[in-house]
Amino acid sequence: MNVLQRLFQVSKQAGRFPVAIASNLLTTSSSRVLQHRQAVPAQCFSLSSRRYDLAEFFEDKKNLGENEVKHGRAWNKDELRIKSNADLHKLWFVLLKERNMLLTMEHECNEKMELFPSPERLDKVNESMTNLEDVVRERNRAYFELETGETGERPAKLVTNQLGLKFYYRMFEHVIPKYANRKWKETHQFHYRGSAVHKFLRMYREKLYNVKRKQRNRERNEVMHLLKRFPGMDRVALAEKYPSVDVEKLYKLDKIRGNYVPAKV
């Protein structure tokens, strides 16, 4: 019995020993963490101020009531091409936020019957976003052409609608095959028929022809007026500005001759 009692006491002590060691380790580790946290200064952590209220959809207070707001120009493609993809991604959201603010202020000014200051800002933001999309599309096209030999753009083809007008249809994937997709066939009919459609096409082509003819006549009359007032104008520059006008032929007309004596060669 004495031997059994001694073994029992030794087992108890052996079972308590790891627990004591673990408790000592936990206390020492926690104390080290606390000391480390106290040693780190609070200035090492910096957070930028974030605003999630509706005030971001409105103009800055210093610009309210002004007739003109100072602003810069739009981003051109050459400036955007030298930026990284991360910078373009950040710039896109900055422009998107600015456009939302400008649209909100424009709507607010229209509701209050007030003048929207510097409305050209919206045009410059839209121009910047369009240029940014073009630059991203250029990079995607170059990457896909290098890796796969294709542009990576959605395939498109020239088709005609039910009125006989041609347009580029951009194709996309469907779950149902084309031959079994009845709903797609009903809404995408790339053909035209009937006498009414042919009459519409004839009148539409006539309208386009009249628009082009009037444009040519306006340019021709403008060139004749310039030659009549300034007979010594540069013919090459005039032909580059008005490519649809035969400048050499107009020099032979009597309408462009003014009250001057032409120089003898």
From TrEMBL:
Its main location: mitochondrion. Gene3D superfamilies: 6.10.330.20. InterPro entries: MRP-L47_sf (IPR038340), Ribosomal_uL29_mit (IPR010729). The keyword Ribonucleoprotein applies. Keywords: Mitochondrion, Ribonucleoprotein, Ribosomal protein. It is found in: Mitochondrion. One of its GO terms (cellular component) is mitochondrion. The keyword Ribosomal protein applies. Belongs to the universal ribosomal protein uL29 family. This is Large ribosomal subunit protein uL29m.
